Here is the input.
Amino acid sequence: MKWKDYPQNIKVRLITSFFNRAVASAVMPFMALFFAQEMSKVWAGSFLIITVFIGFLVNMIGGYISDRFPRKRVLVMTSSLSAVMFLLMAISLLPDEKWIRLFALAYVMFIVTSSLGRPAMHAIIIDSTTPENRKAIYAIDYWMINLSMAIGAALGGLLYLNHQIELFILLTVTAASLPIAYQIWLKDERVQSLKKQHQNVVIDLLQNYKVAFQDRPFVKVVIGSMFIFSAEFSLNSYIGVRLAESFDSFTIGDFEVAGVRMLSLLNIQNMLLVVCMTFMVNKFTDRFSKQHVLLTGLLLYSIGYVTITSANSWYLLLLFNFIGTIGELVYSPVRNAEMANMIPEDKRGSYSAFSNVSFSGADLLARSTIIIGAFLIPTMMSVYIGVLLMIGTLLVYTGLFVRKSKKEQVAEPEIV
Here is the structure.
């Protein structure tokens, strides 16, 4: 599928999301460092944990709002407010004695506004695609996510230490251009809107998500994805800590590669593979059935991450990180496309918001591996990650495909 063949909304969504993620990636990795330097480590940790919960709750509200109201209006309003929050953060950095309270308030409000708009952003890609072209579009979306995050992280790394004000001014200008782009180029697709069932808005919201919770196949895919993502997320938690403590360092000329640098190499390798091989892998897998592609990708992914969880040699880490990343490139577009096909037309925002439980839960599981790893040896941690991946694979596969097989059998006429 060529770029000129993409629907206009998809083009707008992919381009604006690219800049939106790049903006967020330039700032978010440094927030813990910023608040720890300006306040204290305890204050920073407590504050950021609170923002995670705020973001999760607001994201669920955003899913409901994006189903009840036109998605274009939701995106224009939330992105405009996000730009205002970046402007307030930039202003708070101008005085010699930084206005940290204003910065913290603006940061919290940015979390709120961006979380409100995120489900509408996810729902637009489902509104504007068909089951036939979703795999290809999710592949380019996946590629652009990784590229934008890499560019954003590099931009933040270059500007954060000595050019904070300039960085936030740049982010303000970029963020302010997004609602303009939405207003000019985004079209309101004619999709079925969610009807209000209860006078009480809170009861109506809870009732709306009750439907998602009762959709057992979708819940299985969400929980299974949580277990699967936790392996990748553990790279920057347990695996990173283990490498820092026990990695067998090596030298390239006069350059020593210790544990922390090895972790950076793994992340760089992952990013380069995604940017360079996404479309090649996607084109190759198009000739096979979705079920086989999903299982093969998850098998490669599992082999890769189970091994690097306990491996301590640079060549094993690089080899199996390669295998794990290729597995991710194989299974990810199929999982995303098939999961989108499961979502009812009038609840796309709500279901998209609910699916973010996969990422929040995976993040918590990955952080818990640091605690569990204090009691288990690395090889047992590999077994633990392997069990999580087996459970996750079983849940995702049965949620996506076993349900279909049963329906097809029921639909077939009985031959007498």
